[in-house]
UniProtKB/TrEMBL annotation:
This is Pseudaminic acid synthase. GO terms for biological process: carbohydrate biosynthetic process. One of its GO terms (molecular function) is N-acylneuraminate-9-phosphate synthase activity. It holds the Pfam family NeuB. Transmembrane segments: none annotated. It comes from the Bacteria. PROSITE patterns: AFP_LIKE. Residues 297-354 form the AFP-like domain.
Amino acid sequence: MQTIALKTPRGRRFIGENCPVFIIAEMSGNHNQSYARALRIIDAAAAAGADAIKLQTYTPDTITIDSENKYFQIKGSKLWSGQSLYKLYQQAYTPWAWQPRLKQYAENKGILWFSTPFDSTAVDFLEKMKVQLYKVASHEIIDIPLLKRIGQTHKPVLISRGMASIADIRLAIRTLRNNGAPSVAVLHCVSAYPALLSHMNLTTIPDIVKKFKVISGLSDHSPGKTAAIAAVALGASIIEKHLTLNRASGGPDAAFSLNSEEFKDMVKSIRETEQALGRPFYGARENESVDLKFRKSLFAVENIREGELITSKNVRSIRPGYGLHPKYLDQVIGTMASSNIKRGTPLSWNLIKR
């Protein structure tokens, strides 16, 4: 399995198995068309310990057309029903004039900046900004012309799988690789806003790794941090989560975003989960060695005279652990004491006539 290597403002960073989880703060439309608010979201991401801040690069006209006919009306969404696609994207898009300045600001704050392009003009724009990696949104996983253009940048690519079938995912990976993408990561994602925990099916994450031989992780639209922490425990190498300053401020993605303190708490929990997972280990660690003495061993539980037969009555396996290992009890029973043994003495081989 490939590892993604990046040059971040904090130094060399690797994404993949046995690497620290790569945590992405998704700004999306949570800036509410305020440049100052966008800067504060970057501040919050950096303060929380995120590795990267991600935006989306499109305009209403590059992602759809301004039409009020029935095909362009949003229906069935808890958050956006009743709007046209064009009007939603007018609210949610990030002005392109901001993006070079936001990238520089993020890098000055010590975190990586990258984006999700939605058409080839966005890829061209981001290439001029010298981004280090790309994200493919879940709905765009079937946009083969876009994937070809992204692959041609020869940059690593993260894909949200969303509603994609196995065949869709295989085609997307193949398209990106055949066009020059050096490495591809596939993020599990539920394309519902917000996503219910009961619909998350997080065991898909290790299955993605096994089935497609790629790095995997989670692009999370569920409330809270539960899914993200569980994903890390299941082997996720990447966690992407929407960040807002305050859900009460509204915005197209606020309902399934974490606020600043919640995001910071999620990052802390992820790092603690990584520590707790560790690596396979057996035996006693240094700070456990003192407890070895609280394990059982063989002790004289009665006074035993020299030459007296050792029996299950005068020798037993008890705590603490200063005597012979309990596995030797059967060998000891029926032998004779080589000297007087006082009650409470840990048994050793030199006390036994063998």
